[in-house]
Design a protein that fits this description.
The complex is a heterodimer of chains A (511) and B (310).
Chain A: E1 2-3, E2 12-21, H1 27-36, E3 41-44, H2 59-66, E4 76-77, E5 81-82, H3 104-112, H4 121-134, E6 137-139, H5 147-159, E7 163-165, E8 167-169, H6 195-203, E9 207-210, E10 213-221, E11 224-233, E12 239-251, H7 255-264, E13 275-278, E14 282-288, E15 303-305, H8 310-313, E16 318-322, H9 327-331, H10 339-345, E17 351-358, E18 364-368, E19 374-378, H11 382-401, E20 406-408, E21 416-417, H12 424-429, E22 437-439, E23 443-445, E24 469-471, H13 486-502, H14 504-507
Parallel strand pairs in A: 1-9, 2-3, 2-12, 3-9, 4-19, 5-22, 12-24
Antiparallel strand pairs in A: 6-8, 7-15, 10-11, 11-12, 13-18, 13-23, 14-17, 14-20, 14-22, 15-16, 16-17, 18-19, 20-21
Helix pairs in contact in A: 1-6, 1-13, 4-13, 5-11
Chain B: H1 2-15, H2 23-41, H3 52-78, E1 83-84, E2 92-93, H4 94-100, H5 111-122, H6 124-136, H7 143-161, H8 177-185, H9 190-204, H10 206-213, H11 230-240, H12 246-261, H13 264-270
Antiparallel strand pairs in B: 1-2
The chains are: A alpha/beta (511), B mainly alpha (310).
Amino acid sequence: MIVTGADVNNSIAETADVCVIGSGAGGAVLAWEMAAQGRTVVLLEKGGYHPREDFNQKEDDMIPMLYKNAGLQFTVPSGIAVAQGSCVGGSTVVNDAVCFRTPDAVLGWWEDQYKIEDIGPAAMKKHFERVEPRISVAEVQPYELNKNNLVLKRGADKLGWAAGPNSRNCKTCRQCGNCQIGCYYGTKQSMLETYIAEAERDYGKTVKIYADTQADQLVRSGNRITGVKATITAAGGKTFQLGLKAKLFVVSAGTIASSQLLLESGIDINGRVGKGVAIHPSPAMIGDFQEEIHGNQGIPMAYHCHEFSVLNTGKRGYMLEAVFFAPYQFSLPVPGVEYDEKELMSRYSHYALIGSLLQDESVGTVIKGGPLAYYLDYQLTPGDAALMVEGMKSAARALFAAGATKVLTSHRRRTVLYGENDLHLIDDRGVSSGISIGSGHPQGGNRMGGDASAAVVDSHSKAYGFENLFVCDASVFPTSIGVNPQLTVMALATRAAEHIGENWSKYGGPR
Amino acid sequence: MHKSHYIVVERSRAGAHRLSFLLDPVALVVVGFIAGKAYYLLGAFGTTVITRGALKKGLAIAGAAVVAAFWVYSALLYVNAIDFPWPFPAWYSGTDWMLNSGLPLGLARSSLSDVAAVVVFATYPVWFYAGTELGLAGHRLTRGQRLAERNRIISQVVDTVYPRGGAIAPGAADVGTLGLVDSLLRKIPPMFAEGLLVLFFVFDSRFFVLMFTGKWKRFVDLDDNPADTSEKRKYLQAWSSNPYLASATQVLTVAASYGYYTRPQVYKEIGYAGPVCPDLPPWYNPGPGATVAGGPSAIGDPLTNRGVRR
């Protein structure tokens, strides 16, 4: 049962076995898994409930409706745009449906350096295998690659770089090119179409989803959480209170909001809540081609080059990903104002875009303050900056190899490369400031680890110092993972659900 | 020390017209003005958007500290316990500075001047308060007036970023950019909207315009010729290239882009097809040998939530 703000006209008191806060890749999976174990579940989601009938492929309608803060969320002081979904289904509703298993090397670091139990590739395999069919993960077929993706393929092939088609959680994709503003056709198997829909279908009587409902504070009694205080925003902006008591609580609101909720509740485990955030900062490199590319026509993100990625090297690096956007989102990395930006944007249909996803160091911090109550303090480290420059140069090389006549960087001071001899301009400009960088993967902040004195949650996502509080979203990543994170989050949620089920009497008390 | 001190005083009296004896009240007004502006404008970027109550409390504490500092320093000068270091490295005697302020007035300390000094000192809080009132004056608009003022600023920003003509013919004014940006800002959380309102006022303030362009004008008043936006553009670029203002500038330009590049008139100019639903995209490739019939309803996906909504 889904309750939206429009359905509410008074304050509400609820009880459940399990309260899940956040309905994205972590929360939706946890909610379904707990329901499948026979638990009653209440799921709280700050964003609205928008089934695909509400999607219309218009950026001006969809971005305020589906994105956190209407898409206006930036790191401070670096000004990196951080996109997060804010709706039932979370970021899975607005992502590009790209699915990578967590790189083996990353799982190895987590196991060795962070002393996390049962996290190695072999241990995680069964969790990936449980999730992947549920969300229809399949490799993109050659006929599904549009010209934008083929540019990266052509460039990587010419340079002899390791590359391949992405796997995506999509069934019979209609290739409309609007993954980032909600899938009108419902072919993207987001949480909205899978775990949430299936919870409705299979456990409609035991799973209750409150949309438009922000969890304000966890209520603590000793080392147990006993309840949550939440605010429901009803029609006309009127608000009502929701008081919820449960046996077990799972915070899955995403890196920033999960840290915010814990800190607002006076919970700062080991002084580490909100610390160690990475974001996968991704500058865009735009290749201008004589031929029309029409990058918006087709799957936006279907091909990647992992030559310099942890997938290939076993070391921190960057991954090149073909990606494209509708005009507004595309314009954000385009430099300049006035006539020069117009001139650049007038070539929209001739452009190919390669993003360079940086596997960054985890140095960001969620801090109380600012007009959004909390903000993400984040700056590139010198090491990250150097790696980002390399990533941009590699993207430019791939674009030139594929036939680009010129390449635009996303520096705000217009920077145009006319060939590989101009690559030094990227070094000259640098990336520490004066550049538009995007991010869609905030992660870390509530680090998982085996050391009870250094991490926020234990090997199975349980918060240290608490009997019945779990955190399960990308915020538990001890390091950045270097690939699109949704599948890792879902697998970790599956893993946590299994652990909770096996130890219910310990965490949730007797049935 | 004493001998050289009096030499300095003589030299100074002979040639210089420096600051007035009334420096303290003027200085207090200026400091109060800055404090008033700072508490309002920068408050939004602090721990939270400052409420009216917190604003008043903060100003009262700042005012007490400033006035106390002026009292202590000026009183020590007046009783000649310290000298006044102006112009550096020459020195005035404290009493001489307080009474004559570097002007050839020839006033000396007396019982009458003592009484006058106490009276002037007693007015110090009033001068600081007057300054804060001036600093806050622009922010005592009604909400409607503030939104109208915000939209006047946004209008100038979007017209600067997207003027009429060039490679994409329509300008922001031709495609309703302002209205769309306004609607976007009405959909964000109220606290964030309030913070952005403050940001727009900061952006428009004479202080920042002076800092980046050398002109004592508001942003909206830059460029005498409406057809020429070069001064506004230069100012916008100065913000954009300042590392400390990067986040703020991003918000302004992203909001402008939202209001411009989501317009169908612009789609046509750049070769973007726009929304294709409910039909299938004309470029849809179902794969080798496959055919498409029946549109989206033919998708036949059993795992959808159609009809689930109550």
